[in-house]
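Hi all, long-time lurker, first post. I run a small reading group and we've been trying to get comfortable going from sequence to structure in the token notation. Rather than ask abstract questions, I figured I'd post a concrete chain and ask someone more experienced to write out its structure so we can walk through it together at our next meeting. Sequence below, copied exactly:
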Amino acid sequence: MGTRRERREEQHDAFEAFVRARTPALTRTAYLLTGDAHLAEDLVQTALLKAAEHWERIETSPEAYVRRTLYTQQVSVWRRRRGVREHALGEYDAAAATGAGHDPDLRLSLVEALRRLTTRQRTVLVLRFFEDLTEPQVADVLGVSRGTVKSTVHRALARLRVLAPDLADLVEDPA
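-- Answer (accepted) --
Happy to help. Here is the structure in token form:
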């Protein structure tokens, strides 16, 4: 066991390694939550700042802590904000667009349709399907009832069907 200074240096190094390794994925998730590259970066920075403040306590599972912070911060934002204009993802799109089965037309349709959802609808869909959380988990993260999650998912998927009929095969209501 090292000195207190050595332990702080180890924690600092572990935090820096976590930030380097996980920031791109966290930023993509934040973008899906916000619909805006700049807001996504701000959301990630806020979550990482909170993680740095509590690193000693969360060091064994920082990913879960940071993701939960992303979700709760976004809930606070969409409760406060109304009518904020969203912008294209820019360079973050390139990282997520790679892959052998990538269909650019399908991707553009999906991105455009997601942009036209409400912030709450997009947040619930990201948590439910991108993060693969259960309805009770989504309800817990957002501080809403399971019924609210179910109805929001149902309405969001129905809206996606209208906004992008070409995505009908992808938009399947789990209810």
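A couple of things your group might point at:
The radius of gyration is 18 Å.
Residues 15 and 52 are 7 Å apart (CA to CA).
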